[in-house]
Amino acid sequence: MSGDGVVVAGVGMHPWGKWGRSFVQYGVHAARAALADAGVAWDDVELVVGGETVRNGYAGYVAGSTFAQALGWNGARVATSYAACATGAQAIDTARARIMAGLCEVALVVGADTTPKGFLKPNAGERYDDPDWLRFRLLGMTNPMYFALYARRRMDLYGATQEDFAAVKVKNARHGLANDNARFRKEATVEDVLASPVVSDPLHLLDICATSDGAAAVVLVSEAYAARLGLGDPVRVAAVSTVTPTFPNTVMDMPMLATDSTAAVAAGDLTFKESIAVAAYEEAGIGPDDVDVAEVYDLSTALELDWIEDLQLCKPGEAESLLRAGDTTIGGRIPVNPSGGLACSGEAVPAQALAQVCELTWQLRGQATGRQVEGARVGITANQGLFGHGSAVLLAR
Question: What span, in angstroms and rounded, lies between the C-alpha atoms of 315 and 186?
Answer without folding.
Answer: 31
